[in-house]
Amino acid sequence: MATHDHHLNGDTNNNLAKKPKLSSSSSFITASEIQSEFSHHDPSVARINNGSFGSCPASIVKAQQLLQLQFLRQPDHFYFNNLKPGILESRTFIKQLINAHHVDEVSIVDNATTAAAIVLQRTAWAFAEGRFDKGDVAIMLHYAYGAVKKSIEAYVTRAGGCVIEVQLPFPVNSNDEIVHEFRKALERGKENGRRRVRLAVIDHIASMPSVVIPVKELVGICREEGVDQVFVDAAHGIGCTDVDMQDIGADFYTSNLHKWFFCPPSVAFLYCRRSPSCLDLHHLVVSHEYGNGLAVESAWIGTRDYSAQLVVPKVLEFANRFEGGIDGIKKRNHDNVVEMGQMLAKAWGTNLGCPPEMCASMIMVGLPASLGISSELDTMKLRTHLRDNFGVEVPIYYRAPKDEEVGVITGYARISYQVYNKVEEYIKFKDAVNQLVCDGFTCALLSK
């Protein structure tokens, strides 16, 4: 099977990933068709949290179910004749979407957390095998996703590496602030030349608080400063911001396709720039394809449901029903989330967590200080209260005040905007918070 897959990996399949052309605006999806595609969403909930779990349209759910039934009808036929060519086709589409040099650079895995563990497992082996010295450094952003931080602890710290966090400000006002703090962390990492920075883990769009990170500039700094390798965790990347492997220049890059690219959960890609470093990447699950390269290993890790990985071509067809395709969707989502964020901040007398140009399809909005958000526990209690009593689903971030700060905003809501969202949902959120303020509500009133 590995030989068959290698044969198909040639660039002769590039034509598979060409976006279909739409003849006229009359071909574009209508507002009523969009609502029909997402009619399975709970209508009682203002779902302004696409960032957490994404959203899958009904037509893609149907396509996935057909694939699941094909497998169940005759699993052997599906395995021997459909599975690997289908996954290769999806990889080819992804290769075109992200402007990778070659399809061999693209592997499909379950999610970005899995991809991070694959890369970090390689780092742990380098320590264990003596290629890295004890105390060598991995750099990560303070904004890094919690599961990735745990993975760094499990693989890098446990193997003897030193982890340095880039302390970033929030609210953030410019990319210069991020670049300045990143350079400072790199200097600490090198410690007068006594240690080497082996790996930098950089978010493309930080999850919480949500900010678009200037990854291309940070990758360039890593190259200048002699960082061995750069891994970009872009869980929110594809479908949310521009993703171009040859432009960004990272060694490893991962993004979920179920968050902002309409795939069913769960599917992600892991890009590995063609180099010797690619050869010693392996899937966490060792199965029959071990040693045939990460892409082939990932295409079969045992009997499981691979249907989410196979519908990528159908998802691209869905995205191209919109004017401008996925690029048009990204721009409209960005414009709309900024407008909604500004509306909420004005209504509550607060501020955004970053300038509009530093957000994609999510933005942080300050909540009124009178709500008394004083801990991460308070954010969870308030989020549950909004869900259970107001039908609003939105994540909340706790921003601890500095020693000298009094009466500052300590809670920020992360709102998302996807094609199915309506203005009424954000007004529902605005009114819910206004009602809490009017009632003299504070988080201290919620039971623990």
Structural notes for this entry:
- The protein is of the alpha/beta class.
- The longest helix is centred in the N-terminal third of the chain and has 24 residues, at 75-98.
- The protein folds into two domains: 85-316, Aspartate Aminotransferase, domain 2 (3-Layer(aba) Sandwich), CATH 3.40.640; 325-445, Aspartate Aminotransferase, domain 1 (Alpha-Beta Complex), CATH 3.90.1150.
- α6 runs parallel beside α7 and α8 (175-190) packs parallel to α9 (215-224).
- The strands form three sheets. It has a seven-stranded mixed β-sheet, with helices on both faces. A three-stranded antiparallel β-sheet has the order 9-12-11. Strands 1-10 form a two-stranded parallel ribbon.
- It is globular.
- The chain is built from 17 helices and twelve strands.
- The model is unreliable at 1-25 (pLDDT under 50).
- The N and C termini lie far apart (55 Å).
Largest sheet: 7 strands, mixed
**Helix and strand sequence:** HHEHHHEHEHEHEHEHEEHHHHHEHEEEH
Q: Strand portion, in percent?
A: 5-15%
Number of domains as seen in the coordinates: 2
At the fourth level of CATH, the homologous superfamily of the largest domain is Type I PLP-dependent aspartate aminotransferase-like (Major domain)
Under the CATH scheme, which class of the largest domain? Answer: Alpha Beta
Q: What is the architecture of the largest domain at the second tier of CATH?
A: 3-Layer(aba) Sandwich
Which strand order spans the largest sheet, edge to edge or round the barrel? Answer: 2-8-7-6-5-3-4
Mean pLDDT: 91
Distance between the termini: 55 Å
Q: Ranges with pLDDT <50 over ≥5 residues?
A: 1-25
Helix content estimate: 40-55%
Q: In the CATH scheme, what's the topology name of the largest domain? A: Aspartate Aminotransferase, domain 2
Number of strands: 12
Number of helices: 17
The chain-level structural class is alpha/beta
What coarse outline follows from CA principal-axis ratios? globular
Radius of gyration: 23 Å
